[in-house]
Amino acid sequence: MSLVPGDVVRAAAVGSLAVGIVALGGVAGALFLLVLGGVLVPRFLGLPTALDLCFGSSLLLAAWASQLGWYEAVPWLDLLVHAVCTGLVAAVGVIIMVRGQALEAGALPGRARVGLAATTMGVGALSAIVWELGEWVGHTYLDEGIDVGYTDTIADLAFGLFGAMLTGVVLAVRDPAWRLGRDA
């Protein structure tokens, strides 16, 4: 396998894991281990370069923003990250479904495009819920410093759903090349 631009992000994730474990502690190490697992997905799937870079970079940014206190310093950043990351996770999830033939990969007529957008939004909604459950588990069992609460959770879910909705629209109107994993 030859190197691709996303491998720079993956190398940064490996470095972040080392820093997390050695300098920041076990919770940070676990977070960066999750990020490393996430940034490997596009590589194994051979996703388009732009999606690979955006997906991996957003996961890495989300983790570092948490560790460096950026969410407290810039309150709207948390919502932006939830929108962007959830949208990108939804895109990758839908591509996995297409490649696994759980969704049709051919040319899509109008109604099928609406279905694709709705499916993307559903995948994003599910990933947003899992993310929030992860935050709650982290807060409850690992580190009370992880910000949870009704308002935070609802806002995170709303912005995640918004990001997934935008992604669904983009995937539904875009050329079918994304479904085949080619750079377009």
TrEMBL record:
It holds the Pfam family DUF2238. InterPro entries: YjdF-like (IPR014509). Keywords: Membrane, Transmembrane, Transmembrane helix. It comes from the Bacteria. The chain crosses the membrane at residues 12-41, 53-73, 79-102, 114-134, 154-173. Signal peptide: none annotated. This is Membrane protein DUF2238. It comes from Promicromonospora umidemergens.
